[in-house]
Amino acid sequence: MSKCAAARSQLPAGDEFQVGHHSVILMSLRHNAPYRDRIEDGGTTLIYERHDQSETGNCPNPKGIDQPEGYPSGTLTENGRFHLAAQEAKRNLPSPERVRLYEQAHSGIWSYNGMIHLVDSWTEYDKYRSVFKFRLEAVEGDEDSEIVLKAPVPRRRINPNFGKACCMEA
Q: Taking the complete model, does pTM exceed 0.70, yes or no?
């Protein structure tokens, strides 16, 4: 199986918390992206915004309501799960959540941009609602998610659209 075929088979339909020994996020820096992701700190930090309420008959405009942390049942949404992991990492509880970063290069084309670490999260108010923001830092030499890294881990740059591209629908 080619590397691209292997990546395609592992790429979820959207962001996913803890797929095995890591999580997966799909970011987009394109001008028409539905979320406001951005790169900071000379290219070593990703500020990532996610997940809207699902569009339903009761919620026809998810961009008009706060992003949810939990479901009415009390279980956490993906926002809640990522937020909890980020807050634990911030308090130096377990090591940071490892996240495989994919960037949307074009419609149906995703580029693998390496492993990054989830280190912080918060909510902020945009013009209409409260949204979750996640801080992720790019690190050197962390491709094997089963190896425990020793701190401090050297930082690397996130290179938008310079990863290994694969055609995949998500």
A: yes
